[in-house]
Amino acid sequence: MDQIQTVVANRWPAMASVVAVLACVFVATSLLGRGGDSNNLPLLGKEYGHAEKRRKAFITNGVDFYKKGYQLFKSKAYRLTTLDGERIVLPRNLMEEVRRLPDDIIDINTAFDVVNEHKHLGMGDRKLTEFLIHIIRGDLTRSLVRINPRLSAETARTITDTMPPCDDWTSVTVYPTVLQMVAVISGAIFIGPDLCRAPEYLHASMNYTMAFINAVSKLKQWSSKLRWLGRYFTPEVDALHAERKKAHAFLAPVIRERREAMRAGRELPDDALQWMLNKVDDFGLSDDVVAETQLNMSMAAIHTTTLTVTMILYDLVARPDIISELRDEIKRVLATTDGVMTTHALFEMKLLDSVMKESQRVNPGSLIRFQRWVAKPVTLSDGTQLPAGVMVETPHALAVQDPELYKNPETFDAHRFLDLRNGTVPDPHGYKNREQHQFVTVTKDFMHFGYGRHACPGRFFAANEIKLILARVLLDYDMRLPDGVTERYANLSMGASAFPDPTKEVLFKRVKGDA
Ligand code: HEM
After folding, report:
1. Beta pairing partners, 405
2. What start and end residues bound the annotated signal peptide (predicted)?
């Protein structure tokens, strides 16, 4: 445990990246001792002895456990003693059936509550989550065609403002630069084009997630039975509440002003804050919840998108041939839309879409996906019994690197998903609709955005924003690795997660008069 804490302390900036994803995917980390009776399933790591010994073995060899489990039980569920107690690892062939189970059996919200220590942090309003998901699905995603020209202009402006002039080759630390860009561009739609640049907004948007995860991870160092007390001795919890208070103090007058504008019948902005205010009464929620919903939306969106863009840029800069091919595609597509990055234009950038998906395939982030709490016992069609009170999960990263599903999985193949989409190569998945190989599509063979009814609702917005950023950067900048660096920057790994090194630099030079 000490070792882990040291690694966490030393790698804090990198950890911050990971925890952002963890926050989004609701990774359960404190379920020790809460498992039900799942003894009918094979137990991996039996040879290590009793549960505590297996748990310790998992701390040092977690990834190997999953790899062995994948080899031994490719089409059968098995048990694994993780850092946080027993889990049931589900095979790909059961996922279609499990994803159809109702929420009162396979439950994401309870997992979320436990994972994020809501009880001890005084957070976790389910109605708020429901409200947020409604706004994302019902307003944000549906508005993409309408808001895209605005988003595209914001992207161009923000990239120019955030990057140094780059008249000559200039070194840029990628992660923090992309983080700033993503916070501003997303903010333009979340809260409007003026406030998205306000230092208070940007601070909350970029730092609240870290404060949140920092508090949760510190709290989890206490035994689960003592966390109610540990909360009072954990300064990170107070720091989180202070950040939250600051963010609310910034948002409260903004919300009041919007309310006044609504009462006065003035023209209202077309952004997520306004969509929330238009509907919050229907959900029986208060304006204070709107501020909290804004914070939660940033928490789900900003670091996850930043990690994805950073991974893709690291993949691209090490492969200059793909950069020039992508540029050609972007220019060819934009020639048909008078240079405007419409939704249709983004859809037509199919090589870019393929590169984005291939980057997710080779950099799956977390090894596991679809973490759910079994709320009621259920028996699956193959006889697998899932008892109430256990966590289930599936080893997504191993599936996307399985040669039976993805040929030559160790190779970064920029055309992989384009070829699958176009039907120019055989499809080992046998999809009737080859459009399922798009970046935004979730399938049992590709769960980067999760799976089932709780798969990431923000992925359409994220895909749109990632394409806008990459297309603009590729058109406006040449990029290369610093002298002496010949290979892609290695990802950092922590347990079953891998993330881009947030300290790495790439050289950029502005393309002159050719965009
Ligand atoms: C590349 C960026 C992103 C990645 C990789 C990502 C990934 C994920 C994953 C893995 C899940 C869990 C799904 C499951 O377990 O089935 C999730 C859920 C969620 N994501 Fe994202 N996400 C991203 C961007 C966004 C954005 C931009 C938003 C908001 C605008 C968002 C909002 C949410 C919400 C609200 C949930 C919870 C859904 C539910 O409980 O039903 N995400 N995301």
Report:
1. none
2. none
Closest CA to 240 of 213, 277, 273: 213
Q: Which residues of 348-364 are buried (b: 16+ CB within 10 A; e: fewer)?
A: bbbbbbbbbbbbbbbbb
Across 96-100, 161-165, 212-216, 398-402, least confident range: 212-216
The answer on pLDDT for 68 being more than 60 is yes
**Beta strand segments in 375-467, E:** 378-379, 385-386, 391-394
Under CATH, to which class is 2-30+101-364+400-510 assigned?
A: mainly alpha
Which residues have C-beta within 8 Å of that of residue 379, sequence separation ≥ 6?
385, 386
Residue 34 predicted with pLDDT over 60:
no
Ligand 1, atom 1: closest residue by C-alpha:
305
Q: Answer yes or no: is the C-beta of 450 below 6 A from any ligand 1 atom.
A: yes
> Is 465:185 a contact under the CB 8 Å cutoff?
yes
ipTM: 0.99
Q: Which of 271, 273, 270 is nearest to 292 (CA)?
A: 273
Q: pTM of this prediction?
A: 0.92
Indicate if the pLDDT at residue 337 is higher than 70: yes
Q: What is the pLDDT of residues 162-202, one digit of tens each?
A: 999 999 999 999 999 999 999 999 999 999 999 999 999 99
Contacts of 230 (CB under 8 A, 6+ apart): 120, 219, 221, 222
Nearest CA residue ID for atom 18, ligand 1: 456
Q: Are 111 and 375 in contact (CB under 8 A)?
A: no
- Hey, what are 260's tokens? 């006044």
Residues 279-294 pLDDT 10s:
999 999 999 999 999 9
Mean pLDDT (whole number) for 231-255: 95
Sheet holding 170-173, edge to edge: 170-173, 505-510, 477-480
Per-domain boundaries in the chain: 2-30+101-364+400-510
Q: How far is the CA of 17 from the centre of ligand 1 (A)?
A: 15
- Known binding site: residues? 456
- Out of 81-90, 341-350, 422-431, pick the least confident: 81-90
Helices (H), 122-234: 126-135, 144-162, 174-190, 199-219, 227-230
Atom of ligand 1 nearest to the CA of 466: 1
Find the 456 Cα to ligand 1 centroid distance in Å.
Answer: 3
300 C-alpha to center of ligand 1: Å?
A: 6
From residue 457, give the alpha-carbon distance in Å to each of 45, 98, 423.
Answer: 36, 19, 28
List binding-site positions for heme: 456
Report residue 38's pLDDT band, with 50, 70 and 90 as the boundaries.
low
Ligand 1 neighbourhood includes 456 CB (under 6 angstroms) = yes
**The tokens of 301 are what?**
């969106």
Q: Does the CB atom of residue 106 touch ligand 1 within 6 A? A: no
Tokens coding 279: 């509907």
What would the pLDDT profile of 448-498 be if each residue is shown by its tens digit? Answer: 999 999 999 999 999 999 999 999 999 999 999 999 999 999 999 877 788
